[in-house]
Design goal:
Structural class: alpha/beta
Number of helices: 6
Strand order of the largest sheet: 5-8-7-6-9
Number of domains: 1
Number of strands: 9
Order of helices and strands: HEEEEHEEHEHEHEH
CATH superfamily: Nucleoside phosphorylase domain
Helix content: 25-40%
CATH class: Alpha Beta
CATH topology: Rossmann fold
Largest sheet: 5 strands, mixed, barrel
């Protein structure tokens, strides 16, 4: 039985939007909450609303525009995905990973993911950019469950989900641009509630550095497809228990807006080397 969000569906979606995007992307960039400003730096942009992409629902979370943007970034053809489909909205893991499949079907061999996240270490203050070196999947969902999709590896090796070579490039670019870039392990939770103090203590014990409610499904799917993956988190707040201030989504958007320019230049610099 074919999956609604598998390889065949992704090829159909790619065929529906390929001409409108105007480029065959080499790199796909997933824009997290409040980080959509990266799309504004894409040259000669062509925009395709999610409603025109077969299989894509409407993006409903504030800070997610809900469109594909094709064009050139740093001299490289790219497609940016401005908006995610989160499992906490009621979507299954396969749909959360589906944009990565569509990007691959369009021709992208590299996936750059970004997200807004809570800091699990006090030194990761709001506004810090974190280079993802690994993740912990506490969503207890996997987008690969079901029949093997054409082009997928049945048992993908997840010992290095984030490409070491791309990480090295990101560190060089950040150093040249004077951007502070910390390393960290991302913990993916189902959400939508923020964590309790006890849960935060658990995540720290498990080895997490930042925590959020996205990213993991698309990275798993991308690795099953053989894509190289690079990931960044923007720390928007200290996790519960590390600060007495209440956490709000408005705070998330405010912080990402403040540091978005740094991430834009960092991503542009990395893409230009590919």
């Amino acid at each position: 039985m074919k999956s609604r969000y598998g390889a065949a569906a992704a090829k159909k979606a790619a065929a529906a939007v390929r001409r409108r995007l105007g480029v065959k992307p080499r790199v796909a960039i997933v824009l997290g909450s409040g980080l959509g400003g990266i799309a504004a730096t894409i040259e000669r942009p062509a925009r395709v609303p999610y409603r025109a992409v077969p299989g894509f629902p409407k993006a409903t979370v504030p800070g997610h525009a809900g469109e594909l943007i094709g064009g050139m970034l740093g001299g490289v053809p790219v497609v940016a995905l401005s908006g995610r489909f989160h499992m906490y909205e009621g979507h299954d893991a396969a749909l959360a990973a589906y944009p990565a499949r569509v990007a691959h079907a369009l021709g992208a061999a590299t996936l750059i993911v970004s997200n807004a996240a809570g800091g699990l270490r006090k030194e990761l203050s709001p506004g810090t950019l974190v280079l993802l070196t690994d993740h912990i999947n506490l969503m207890f969902r996997n987008p690969l469950i079901g029949p093997l999709e054409p082009g997928d590896v049945r048992f993908p090796d997840m010992s290095a989900p984030y490409d070491a070579g791309l990480q090295a490039v990101a560190r060089r670019v950040a150093a040249a641009q004077g951007i502070r870039l910390a390393d960290g392990v991302y913990v993916g939770l189902l959400g939508p509630a923020y964590e309790t103090r006890a849960e935060v203590r658990m995540l720290i014990t498990l080895g997490g550095d930042v925590v959020g409610m996205s990213t993991v499904p698309e990275v798993i799917a991308a690795r099953a497809l053989g894509m190289r993956v690079l990931g960044f988190s923007c720390v928007t707040n200290l996790a519960c228990g590390l600060s007495d201030a209440p956490i709000t989504h408005a705070e998330v958007l405010e912080t990402t807006a403040r540091v978005a320019a740094q991430l834009q230049e960092l991503v542009r610099g990395v893409v230009a080397t590919l």
